[in-house]
């Protein structure tokens, strides 16, 4: 079981690091499919791995000058505050409701990303009133991410693309915001954390290595259209698997 967990999570973490996301969207289902409990193992471990993946990716993107630190700071703060609230709410909902919400979130994010494929690639990060709405959107995304055991990147990445961020800057800035929301969300779940420490440490080292590799590939090699297409296909596949 440990070997399968390492192989699967290493693979998906490379891709999610390329998307500026932590990978909780797949870490949680993978741990569930391997027989771990949703609320006490899969979700808290998933959001911890989410934070580690996005943090390592963020360091790479920072070195390549891709992160919009100042413009996205309000989004990061709202995400930091609301992510633990989502984790608190999650333990008052049934697993069935959480899984249904999971599928809805994934489907929305996939469709929104596919819509951006036909749009021209922006030249610079946007400015103006959209940042206010983006901050509110990031808070809602972090709340939903905390509730579902994600970091909120599922919503935040499409949100930044909608705002007009160039794809690579959107990916890098998503990693920045998701790092805040993931670790904040994990702290909100510490009281419900009952995962084996061996599993937690091994998977943490796994995602750190995968995130370093994936973020370097994105910063130096990947094309914006490839990133968006891979993201949408991956989301649709996970959503279909959860429905089945």
Distinctive features:
244 residues; mainly alpha; 10 helices; transmembrane helix
Brief synopsis:
It is a multi-pass membrane protein. It is found in: Cell membrane; Membrane. By secondary structure, the protein is mostly helical.
What does this structure look like?
This protein is mainly α and 244 residues long. It has one domain (2-243). Helix content is 78%, strand content 0%. The protein contains 10 helices and no strands. It has helices at residues 2-18, 24-33, 38-63, 69-90, 95-115, 130-148, 153-163, 167-187, 197-220, 224-243. α3 packs across α8 (167-187) and α6 packs across α8. The chain is globular and about 45 Å long. The relative contact order is 0.23. The mean pLDDT is 81. It is found in: Cell membrane; Membrane. This is Probable membrane transporter protein. It holds the Pfam family TauE. Its main location: membrane. The chain crosses the membrane at residues 6-34, 41-61, 73-90, 97-114, 134-163, 170-188, 194-214.
Helix and strand layout, with pairings?
Elements lengths: L1 H17 L5 H10 L4 H26 L5 H22 L4 H21 L14 H19 L4 H11 L3 H21 L9 H24 L3 H20 L1
Helix pairs in contact: 1-2, 1-3, 1-9, 2-3, 3-8, 3-9, 4-6, 4-8, 5-7, 5-10, 6-7, 6-8, 7-8
Strands, total number: 0
Secondary-structure-based class equals mainly alpha
How far from one another are the termini?
22 Å
Basic shape: globular
Low confidence ranges: none
- Summarize the main sheet: none
H-E string: HHHHHHHHHH
Beta-strand content = under 5%
What count of domains describes the coordinates? 1
Please give the radius of gyration in angstroms. 16 Å
Mean pLDDT: 81
Percent helix among the residues?
Answer: over 70%
Pfam families: TauE (PF01925)
Membrane topology: Multi-pass membrane protein
Main location: membrane
Family: Belongs to the 4-toluene sulfonate uptake permease (TSUP) (TC 2.A.102) family.
